[in-house]
Amino acid sequence: MKQLRNYTVFLLLMIVSCYALSAAEVKEFSSDQLRDRFQVLVNELRCPKCQNQNLADSNSPIASDLRKEIFRMLEEGQSDQEIIDFLVVRYGEFVMYRPPVKKTTLVLWLAPGFLLLIGIVVIIVIRRRQTMVSGTSSALVGGEQEQLDQLLGESSNVKSTNSSEMLNSKTADDEENT
Question: Would you give the end-to-end CA distance of the chain in angstroms?
Fold first, then answer.
């Protein structure tokens, strides 16, 4: 009976803790336009702790604080650019998924295209080498093709005569045994 009571208490605690973990942030926006701006901002800004998650998807405490801060700044009437500038000053350009194009970020913007171009050039060079090698090795000069055909013809004749001789000797052996 005591065990049943312990199990019941344990299950009740598990159920209550599940509800506590599933608590979601609910924000009352003064307008639908602010709600839309909030969603755009939290989806475009990166969590400083999680690195590969935006503020909307992250469950870290700092992401929660930043969502509250963005909500507060929006309700105060600040523009999206002012909010982004505030976060960049505080956390650096790392918080932006799409950093602006300037000297310090030029490598980030040009590297993918440059690497793609290098890959295409490498593929073209490899293909040309393969066609050059296969083109020279398969082409036989003048009489070489005729000699090859003669050799192949003779070897097929030798094989056919050998196989017929073997077949004849096997049938003769079979007749002797019977």
Answer: 91
Q: Are residues 58 and 118 in the same domain?
A: no
Residues 6+ apart with CB under 8 A from 78: 86
Phi-psi region of 142 (alpha: psi -120 to 50; beta: other; left: phi over 0): left
Q: Furthest-apart CA pair in the chain: how many Å?
A: 113
Residue 74 lies in a domain: yes
Whats the size of the chain, residue-wise?
Answer: 178
Q: Are 83 and 70 in contact (CB under 8 A)?
A: yes
Q: Are 104 and 96 within 8 A, CB to CB?
A: no
Each residue of 158-178: pLDDT tens digit? 555 555 555 555 555 555 555
Q: Would you say 72 and 57 are in contact if contact means Cβ atoms under 8 Å apart? A: no
pLDDT tops 50 at residue 23: no
